[in-house]
Structures are given as structure tokens and as C-alpha cells.
Amino acid sequence: MSDCVRYPAPGCVVEYLEGNAVQIALITEEAGGRLRLLLPNRRETRLNASRLLPWLGPLHGADLGRDEAVRLLEQHKKCREDLASDVPVMDVWEMAQGEVSVAPATWFAELFTSDPSADQVSAYGRALLACKSHFRFQPPDFQVFPADMVEKRLVEEKNRLEREALIAGGAAFLRMLWDVACRKRELPPPPVEGASSGEWPSADVAESLEEVLRSRMVDPEGQEFDALWRTLGKGLPDVPHLPLQLLVAWGKVPAHYNFWLDRAGYASGDSWWADCGDEVAALTAAGSNPVNAYARQWPDAALETCDQPCISIDSATTRDVDDAFHIAAEGEGWAITLMLACPALFWNFGGPLDKLVLHRGTSIYLPEGDCHMLPEVLGTDAYSLLAGQARPGLRVLVHVAADGTLGGCEISVVQTSLAANLTYVDSQAVLDALAAGEALPQNAAAPFAEQLRMGLAMARQRQTARIADGAVIMDRPDPVIHLEGEGAEVRVEVGQDYQASDAQMLVAEMMILASAAVAQWAAEHGVAMLHRVQDVALPKEYAGIWTTPQDMTRIMRALTPSALEVQARPHAALGLARYTPVTSPLRRYPDLVNEEQLVHYFRTGQPRWTEAELVDLLNVLSPALDAAGQVQRFRPRYWKLLFFRQKGDKVWWNGVITEENDAFVTVSLPDQGMFVRGRRRLFDERAHPGLAVDVRIGKVQPLYNEIMILEAVPAD
């Protein structure tokens, strides 16, 4: 017969919870639900009967001596602990599945023992209390969790234990890494396998810690590890980019790591498309022999071949050539053939590769190397307009009047083979010789001197016409950033590159012409496109070419940033009623989309996407372009700031004041393409926009984007 009892009374063995631990005791006195208890350590305590665990007994004599009572308690305690360790908890849980959802400890004990003793019931109660992943104690019963709940709770428990281990082993390690970052100490060598870890966390903790740091580096405002990071970060300074600095100190990322690419989700290198190898191979074959590929894909049509000797003009390092031109006199005006690379002809929109390219959105060009939007085998080879190589092309034939105004436009898809890939340097040398009436230089551009001459004449007229329509042109050369060395030893130089002003203006006007002509054609044919807009009213006097920093700053304040929209609206700075980017399909996804609208129209009589569908596409594309734009803005600025820090605070720099108020003065450093601020008190009382000054710079923190003027004097 079981020795369990129903009601507590003097001499009864009972148990209760203190914290999460089961305590055993003997009742020595009971009065109105208040109990006096004797504990195994001979101490006494008082307890309300409602706090007792729902298994009572056995009942011993109320007149037990203290020594005997303690001996019995110790005996029962050991017995119950031993029995609890042998309880097959998982078997208990499995047997309960489908039988009960809630039951007392006695029910579970009876699954394995008929008429269980108080010690046996207690053992099962203790075992179930300890198995919180499978049971929940809801006095007087235990809730049996179903399998899906168990799985969830096991995951939660695993996460809890990992979190505790991470906090215990990670916080001190992070503080040590910060000391390393501050150069207060060296990073200790990691432990050899099997040896004591010393200051290093365990391998599992280190892996989790790195995951947390990388996550916070990429998304400082993210919620995934927010609470954990606040706990780990106690005792660490609240400084920008702390996770990045700790990762650098740890050696997990190199010095000067480009975390902006990570924030953009933009993979560097040329392996990001590896899972789309078959698709890339097919596109490569099609781009290298477009006529045959076109015939196989659309047997009822033929791809026209364009034999005009088009030329491209780019930097000497350019590999992704996506635009070229040919110009011929047409009465007093010109007929310009603008040839654009045409990857859209065979592109699988919506396919696996397209989704990856859409996520990238654009190529990114950085001092440390280029990140191409397309796989390099496509963007710099199979679809790049390389001289003498057959390539698919989008031909835009534009008629321009003698006064530079835009005439009619004809568009078609063709196979092309460029006559030459020229450089800005060679083209400028030819243009300089023509202007001076001198003999042409012996370079690759010389055979195309007449093309260059007519192109420049047309470009100047187009520029004049655009200015008459309100165009604002900022004539400011972009400095070039050069890096030497690697890692922490990298050295930065910033300086002006060779300025091929005429050649660059020629190409710029050709591309603006192409985008304006396509926009006009699309409007006439009712084809929805993505447009670059800047719909802001500018004073007429703002139109023109501006060269001084103070003028450019003043006018830039009146301009709003351009935006990509489906609705065609004016572009103020370009002086155009509508502008459709289409000239860089190898480098910009909007251009690829616009090109596909045209290609699909010529094949089917309808564009691929409606306006509503383009809006949906733009909602996906815009965040990618914004993220890539941040990389393109902030990363070169980081290198420039590092350049100033490396030069030190004793160097004087030539600048021009662009803005001033009672608190600060802003100075443009034209040779470095930088704006810096200093407190008003550092400047002469005559300081005003346009005043040339020499400044000394310090307090430079590239990672924090901080730079200040320390001293300023009027330039001699």
C-alpha cells in the first residue's frame, strides 16, 4: 500500500521549491495552514501549506526526536535523488503523448510502478520538474508538451545556453580586443589545439561572437542581436563602427576594410555568379556571335549588320566599353550614329542571373578596384564593344541641326564591330593639334581626326543649345586617388589626372544626346521607360558653365538630387524636357531595363513592361541603387581622409571659401575634391565666399568621417 498521504500533518515528509531547487522537510507543527518545518541541516523554517509540492508522505510519528527526524530526512532525500536519476523521462513523455495533456506526478509514476511510494512519486515529480523542455509544472499537475512545442523549447534552451556562454566568454574578450585596437597591447597568440584557451574564448563562442560583430557591422540598427550586443558592449566605448574596429583588431577583417560593400549586400570580386555558370556560358556564346544566336532564337527574323566605323573614347583602363559613335555631316547639321552595347538582346529577365544583377544594380568603381554589375566575362568581354569583335548593339541614329537642336531619331538592334577603341589622352592630343593647326600626333586616334573634329563641333553646339534651355554645367575636374601598398601599410595619394577636357566633353554630350533622343522616341511611340528627373525651377541666370567653387556651391544648393522615375519630367541641370538613361547597359541596371523596353518593342511591337510594372521594378531596384550609391560616395571619401591624416597637420592646403556664417566657414579644396569646415574664429574678419585661403587640417578620423580646419590664413 502506498505511503502517500493527502493532507500535511506533524511527522509528514514534504517538499517545496526554493528558487528552482526542491527542498525536503519534516512538519513539526501545523496551525491553520501555517507549517513549522525541520530541514535536514537541523534548521527550522515556517511555510504556508500552499507552497508544498503536491506529493506528501510518508507520515512518521509526530513525536520523533530531532536526531531521528534528521536521519529520516537524509534517508528520504538520498533515496529520492537516486530514484529521480533513474526515471526514464523521455519514455514517460512518449507514453503520455496521446494519452493525457495534463496529469499529476502520481499518474506518471504509475506508468512504471503499481501503487508507487511517496519516494517514487517524488522522484517522478523531481525528474519532470527538471525536464522543462517537455513538461511544465502547473500545480498540482504537469502539462505535457506536444512534439512541436518540445522542438521549439529545445531550440530556445539551446539558444539560451549559447547566449549565456557567449556573454560569459565574450565580454572580456571584446574588452581585450578594444585594448588591441587602441594599441594598448598586442593580440595574444591563439591557443594551440588541446591547450588552455587563456584569454581566448572557446571555438564555439568565438564563432558566435564573430557572427554578432559582423551583423552589427553591417546593420548597426538591426534587432537580431540588439539586446545581446548591449550586454556584450558594457564597459566598451560608444564610438562609431565599434564592431568593425574589434574585427580588425581580431584579424577577422583587414585594415581599411570596405564595410560599405557589406552594408549594401554587394559581393566584390567576380565569383558571385558562380551558381549561374551555364546561363553565363550561353550568354557569352550569344554575345560573341550575335547573328547566329539571333537566328537560332528567332528563326523568322534576321539581325541587321551595321558597317559604320564607330569609335569609342574611354579611359585607358576601361574594360567595359558600352558606347561608341560615328558622325557625318548632314547639310549644315550632323547625322550621329550612337552605338550602345546590347546585353538585353539575349538577357533572361527574371532568371537566376538577372536576380543577382538586379540586386547589384550598378557597377561600383573604387580606388582599390572595380566591382562590375555583370560577370566580367560578359561585361568586359562578350558584350563589351571591343574593336574588331562582332557584338550586339543598339543603334540610335540622331539628326542634329546646325544650332545643336535635336531632330528626328531612329532606333534599331544590329550587329556591330567597332573600328577602334580610343583613349581620352590620344583623342585630346588630336583635338589639340587640330585646334593649333599642327601636324597630327602619331597615335591610334589620328586616323579618326575628322570624326573627332566634327564630334567636338557638334558637342559644342549641343552644349550651347542645352545652356539656352537652362542647363547648369559644373566644370570641376575629379581628383584621382592612388593606393600603394596593402593592409595597414597602404599609402594614399590624391592628385589631378590629365585633363582631356574637349574629348571628355565630346563623349559626355554624345551620351546626353543618346539619352535625350531615346526619351523623345519613347514618348512618340508610347513606350514606358525609366527616366532620370530633376524637376526644379532654376533662375535663368544659373544656366551656363561654372568653374569657381563658390559659384558651384551656391548653385548646387538650388538643385535637388536627381531621381529615377517612371513619369517623364524635366531634368533641370541637363536642360532637357526628358532624359532616359540608356548609354551604360553594362554598368547600370536602369539602362539595361530601358534597353530591353526597346529591344522587346522591336521584336514584338510591345514593350516588356507596362508603367505599373516598371513602378514595381523600381521599388526593388531603388534600394539597391541607394546602397551602391553610399559605397560610391563614402568609400573614396574615406581614402581622402586617410590621405590627409597621413600627410599630418603641418601641411598647408590651398582652398577657397564657399560658405560662411557666425559659427563655421566651409572651404573647398579643389585639388583634392574636398570640402572642410572650421570655426569662424579661425578666419580673418574679411572672410567671404570666393576668398582664397590656405588652411591647416587636423582632427582627421577617416572611419568616423571627421576632419576639421585647425588654422586658416588668407592666401598670398
Task: Describe the model.
- The chain is α+β, with helices and mostly antiparallel strands and 716 residues long.
- It folds into four domains: 13-145, no CATH class; 149-253, no CATH class; 274-637, no CATH class; 648-714, OB fold (Dihydrolipoamide Acetyltransferase, E2P) (Beta Barrel), CATH 2.40.50.
- The protein is 39% helix and 22% strand.
- It has 19 helices and 27 strands.
- It has a five-stranded mixed β-sheet with strand order 8-15-14-11-10, with helices on one face. Strands 25-24-23-26-27 form a five-stranded antiparallel β-sheet. The chain has a four-stranded antiparallel β-sheet with strand order 1-2-3-4, covered by helices on one side.
- A hairpin with a 5-residue loop joins strand 14 (391-400) and strand 15 (406-416).
- The radius of gyration is 38 Å and the shape is elongated.
- It starts with 12 loop residues before the first strand and ends with a strand.
- The model has no long low-confidence stretch (mean pLDDT 93).
* Structural classification: alpha+beta
Distance between the amino and carboxyl termini: 111 Å
The share of residues in extended strands comes to: 15-25%
Number of helices: 19
Number of domains: 4
What is the count of β-strands? 27
Envelope shape: elongated
The low-confidence parts are none
Helix content: 25-40%
Main sheet makeup = 5 strands, mixed
Give the spatial strand order of the biggest sheet. 8-15-14-11-10
* Mean of all residue-level pLDDT scores: 93
Using the CA coordinates, give the radius of gyration.
38 Å
